[in-house]
Structure formats: C-alpha cells, structure tokens
Amino acid sequence: MSTSRIAFHVTAADADAELFLVDCDFALVADEQGDRGIGDRTWLVEPGPYKVKARRGTAIREQVVLVRPGAETFAVPHIAFASPIPIPGTAWTHEHHMELARSTWAPRPGNLWITAREWTEAERSQKPIAEIDPSRGLSVLTLDGTAMPMEWRKTLGWEPIAIGMADVPPGPYRLHLDAPDRKPVEMMLTISPECSTQVYLLTETPLPPDKRRVDLINGAITIRLPGPRSDEAWQLEEIARQALIDDRTKFSAFLKPEILKDTATPMLSLFGAHLLVNEARKQNERRKTDPSLPEIDHRDTVARVVERLRSQLGRDHPDVEALALGAGVGNPDYRFTVPPMLRGGWQRVLSESSRREDLCMRDSFAQKIWGQLWGDGPWLLWTEDALHSEEAWTERATLLLAQFLQTLPPEEEMTPTFMDSFRNYFIKPDLPGFPDVAALRVNTPAAIPQIDKERARKILEDPEKRKALVKELGLPMNTIRDWLEKT
Amino acid sequence: MNDDWAIVVGIRSYWEPSLQGLEGPENDAREFYDWVISPDGGGVPEGQAKRILSSDFQGAQEPTATMVQAMFDHLDAVDAKFKKETRTRKPFGRRLWIYFSGHGFAPDIDDKLTALLTAEAALGAFHKSHVITSKLADYCATARYFTEVFMFADCCRTIMPVTQLNVKPIGKRSDDADEVRTFYAYGARIGKESREWEVNGQYRGVFTMTLMEGLRGAAVDRSEKTPVITAESLNNFLHNNFAAFMVPDDRGRAGIRREPEVQYEHRATKLVIAPLPETTFVNREGNATKYPVRILARTKGAEGEPYVITRRSMNIEGKVGDEIIDLEAGLYVVSVRSLFFVEAFEVTAGPGVVDVHV
C-alpha cells in the first residue's frame, strides 16, 4: 500500500501560516508529526481529493485539490490577517494609516506611543461624515491616578486616526479607558528605560458612533529597542499574539527558534515564551490521563529568553519576572508590587503565590486588582472600580471560599465498605427525575455558608489544594489567607 | 444509555419587546430534544431529559434564569442521593447533554463566555436574566457528576456590557475532574450574531441545522470499524459544513466566520457520541444524509459525455447534464475521460444543489 502513497508538499507564501490537510471524509490528516504544519509541510497520503486549509491569525483560506502523480505540490497564496497595527500586507488597514504610522516612527528610550484608529470596509465615499475621535476616553495614569500629559496628532473624518506620544519616566503606568454605559477599564503599561513602548488600538466598530471606543482586549502592544522599523518583526509579533489569544500552543514549534534569536523583539519573546509555557502545562495536564504522551519541557528555552529580556528590559519588569516563574528561574527576592501586562503572567504569579505567599507585596497595587479582572485575551485588564470596591467583592469571595472548603468531603466518609460495593453491584439507586419547571417560581438567594476555619487551615496545608484554590478564586494566596483569618 | 441525562432549553419569547423576533430557538430545541431521547439518537430516558421552551409558560417572563439554573441544581440533589446510597465517589451518570437556543451575548467582563438570555431579560439589566452556558457545563464536569459532558449553544455572541455574571457558584470539586471529557460547540463566534433563516417553512438556526445533520449520521466517522459518530468526526463535520448552512449572502461577507467554535480535547481514545442510526432519520430532502449534486457542462461539447465520480472505493457513473445525483458530504473526484478532465470537488451538507462544472 505504501508504494502508492504520494509525498504531498504544501508551501505557504507566509512562513507563519498554519497548514492543515483535510481528507475526503473531512478528517484532518495526521501522522507522527501531528496534524498541521507551519509555513510548509509534507504529508504522505494516498492519491485522491483533499482540502488544503491555511490559517493566519483569524483569516482562513481553503482550496480543494486532487493529489495524484504530477500534482504533488500546492502553493498557498499570501493571506492578509487583521491587526490593529497598520502593517503593510495585513487586512484592516489603508494606506493613509500606514503612511502616518511610518512618518511618525521615531522610537526612543522611555517613549510611550499610542495609536487609536478606526477601520471600515466601506469606501471613503460611502462613509457618513462623523467626527469621531478614536482616542476618546483614553488616558495614561500613574499608579496614584495622576494623568500623564500626551501630545496627540489626530486626523479625523473618514477612518480617523489619533497618535499620542509622551516621554515618560520608566516605571509602571495605568492605561485607562472611560466608556459610556460601563465602568472604566484599565491595564498595565510598564515602560522600560531603554525601550519605546507602543500601543495600537482599533475602535469597536459595531457600536454606534457615540458609544464607540477603542477595544483594549484585542489591542496590540510592542516594546522596541531603538532601531529601524521592521514590518516583518511586527507581523511575527501579531501572529504570536493571536496564537496566544487562541491558545494555539502547537505554534510554539515555529516560534521557538524565532524567540531564541538575538534579534527577537521583547514582546515577541514574551508572547512566544508564554506559548511554550502553556504548551508544556497543557501536555502535563494531558499526561495525567494519557501517560504515553511525551513530556514537553521548555524551561531551558524560556530561561534563556528570560535572561535576554532581563538585559533588555531590566531586572524588575513584572512580565519578565512572571515569565521567569514559569521557567523555574524566578528571582527569589522579587516581589510583585504591580501586575504584569500579560494575563498569562498574572496566572503564573497567582499559581506561584500558593507556594510563596509573600510573592505579591501586601497592600500593593498588584494586590488591589483582584476581584474585578475584566475581559479576556492576552492582556490583564481590570475595571477601575475594583480599586475602590473590595467590599463589593467580599460577599462573592466569601461564598466561593466557603463552598470550596465545604464541598471537599472528608475522605473517610466516602470510602465504600465491602457490603457497599456488593450492594452497588446489584442495586442501582432510584434517582429522581427533573422537577416541574413551573413549580420553581420562588427566587430565594443562596445563603452564604459558614466557614469552618479549623478545617480550612488544615485543607490549606495541602499544596495542591492551595493551588486549586488560588486558581479558582483568582486571588494571590496571601490575600486569601489574610481574608480567611479576618472572617 | 440509562445513565444519560439531558437539559434542553429553547427561548423564543422575551418580555423585552426589542428581543422579540427570533423564530428558530423552539424549533431547534424541539428537534434536539427529539433526537436526544430517541433510541436511534442520544437514547436518554425521557424521565432524565428536561425540555424547557418559552411556549410552555403562560407569562412572557418565563422561563427565568432561576428556573433554568434549578435544573442544574437538581443534579446536585441527584448526586447527593447517589453518593449517600452508594457511598462511592463515582459519577452518577455517564453523559450529560446540554442544549441552549435563544438570544445570547458574550459578556464584556469575560468575552470568551456565551450567555443565554432568559425570558425575563430586559435591555440594560441583563445581570440576573441570563445563564452562562459553559459555566453550567463546567459545573457538572468539575463535580464529576458525569464522565462526559456535551454542550451545544446556538446563541448570538455579540459583546455586551454587563456588570455582573449570573454564575452558579462552584459546586463539588472532584479530584478526578480532569478525567471528565467535555465537548462544547457554539453557533456563533465571539462578537458575531448567530444566524437563523427559513428553511422549508420553518425558521431554523444555522448551527443547529448543521449539528442535527451531523448527529443524524452525516458526521459518521469512517475510520472506525463500526460506523459511529465520534467527537472528532462531529467536529470535522461542523467545521466543514457550517458554511453550507449559512444564509447565502452571509457566506461571502467579510467578518462573518464560516466555522462554528468547538472546544474539546483530543485524547488517545476517541469519544464516541452515538452509533450510526440504522433507521428513520432523513434530511430535509428525504435522502438519508445525502445531498444533491449536478455535474454540469462548462465547455461546449461536454453535455452528455459520460463521467465517473470516485471517492475511496466508491464509483458512480453518469452523463454530464442536469440530472441530480445524491452524495454524502465529503470530497470527491469527477473525471470525464473524453475531455481529459479530472478534478476534485466538495459536497457539503447544506441546503441547495452542489453544481460541479466540467
């Protein structure tokens, strides 16, 4: 049978395109190399009809092909993916945005640059004239809430764009967004002394003009050392960011050599390293149910990336130090006073806090954001309200913690005796069917259970339980511990 | 399948006037329910399957989020009784089917979630009048009430601001929860409205139409010795056939995803959903999981020429022209020897005829 097989080679115009081959039953063709390739891939297949599927960011291109002798290769043309950065060759950008971004490119140490723009499929002539300032509601605050002055250059009208610049002292800042009908949203911006930090945001176009604001969830942030502009580096960063959004850990094989290069940008290194950490974590989870799976360990690679990032961004950058925790090279003296920019980093801080309870500095800004994390995607976002609403969250935290503790039944209660097992073999319990829905009109709020503190302390001696608790509640361990003792 | 359970919710009528006008959810929920209790389908005993439709209630404000959630609370009571009587930590059920259809949204607090609005929903006050579909499914999986949890949601996922999520608080947490296999599928990607349209006089959701076609047998896993529908084959079917069920105008529209969202974890052992039905289920055209195809002449002189369609060991012969043949969804090769023509083509499960030009 194998003699009739054909080595079918698919190559993409974009080296970072994810490639799949679908067989005539719509199943992905998989072998020991897995079910996909990046950039190019050869599959050994029987002749016949197949579908080549290529994905880049969120864009997908499909083509049905007939694989036979003489038709053993297929070339996937360029796929334009969407990005908030006006990079040439991507979708959702027009020449005047690219030109403005090009002409204002001047990264320098300590420089903060924010681009907010709107993009539309409609032609210039079809666009109703509405003077929308895409930077509305955006501000940069210090940790204590003082607004930093920004110099804005705005081109409004059709597809408005606003570029804000400021030279700010290195350190942590809050990117703040006020929007109508919802609470303000914030995220962290950590400015490194040797780098320029750039934020690119698109407006949420489905919203009506008066409510339209920039979309922080899908925003792009880059950290650049001074040097020439590189569209390729930007594209790679964007592909990595979108892979992180979709948790496409298989992409890590492509990114691993890229992030080890000395030319890798700091943000590409952060995205790529998080993907590697995620891939290893997911594989370890899978190995619990399927021990035959190979172990994946990227700690050496991530450790090398962390060392380079420390030299580029300094030894006190929260994103780098959070990543270091995932690689087992965390700085034992480092305490988080502010959260990292990336959500993945914050999760590693929480997880590690179950072991190192003082990892988050007490009463620091990092400790204040718990309880009102917001949105999804790669960036750690929170509603500004969280900074003032600890009490509002207490009831929910009480309920969660009480139930977490209460619903772990003592082991001895659940061990069946020989008689139990004997009976269970022959007799199945008569389980009640669903009640009548119409009889459920009473809406009584759930009572908050009391916490058995002694039992809670005992349970929290178990590192695995501490880890689970931190993960479920999304709070640093010292916050949980303090709160438990206060209750 | 005596240990299987199902909760099916379809909400068409809403208290809020601006939420009126969705026609398909009850039709879709009825069809899923019929399938899930059918011996040829999900095989769930009727006593363990609950169907909640808005037309079951007199008032326009029901079913409420509390009522829907109460069905899940009931599973707590079932589990408690089971564990008390057996003194084991085993799951009380094998599989839970969950199906939601109605207005929905992705809350901006966590936009990866899909919320189903319940009948009492009022614009600007969604915080208590919704259920979070995946959270309810996760709740049952985390507690390990079942070894398998399937959840399907045919709801919009437009991102909406909401100040508070209506989430059933964490329940029992099993140390073996990671052994539970889950399969969640959503009809609309985040930020995109789920679509419905009229087919054969009935409004239907695009996702549910695709799903039901697959569950009826079109999503058969042919790599298995005995034909069965597996999580893998259903996933493949949904990804490759969803676009065929879309409103034709939507297919070419930029920004509208051509694939549903499916979340499940591949494992070494395939997750078998159901055997291939032996009887009864037919698609809208009356052909069991087969779809109409025409081989049409593109070039002069091709009309009437004999063709051969092949797929693995299958061979179908015919003559180029208007004649309709029925084929299963998949990829095929058509060859017309006299024209030295050979090309691959795709048959998807959507409505309408697939035209192949030679």
Describe what you observe in this structure.
The complex is a heterodimer of chains A (487) and B (358). Chain A is an alpha+beta fold and 487 residues long. Chain A contains 13 helices and 17 strands. In chain A, a hairpin with a 5-residue loop joins strand 10 (151-155) and strand 11 (161-167). The longest helix of chain A has 24 residues, at 266-289. Chain A starts with 5 loop residues before the first strand and ends with a helix. The model of chain A has no long low-confidence stretch (mean pLDDT 83). By secondary structure, chain B is an alpha/beta fold. In chain B, 22% of the residues lie in helices and 31% in strands. In chain B, the strands form 6 sheets. Chain B has a 6-stranded mixed β-sheet with strand order 2-1-3-7-9-14, sandwiched between helices. A 4-stranded mixed β-sheet of chain B has the order 6-5-4-8. In chain B, strands 18-17-20-21 form a 4-stranded antiparallel β-sheet, with no helix packed on it. In chain B, helix 1 runs parallel beside helix 4 (206-218) and helix 4 packs across helix 5 (231-245). Mean pLDDT of chain B is 84; it is low at 280-287. The chains are: A alpha+beta (487), B alpha/beta (358). The interface between A and B is large, with 62 and 73 residues.
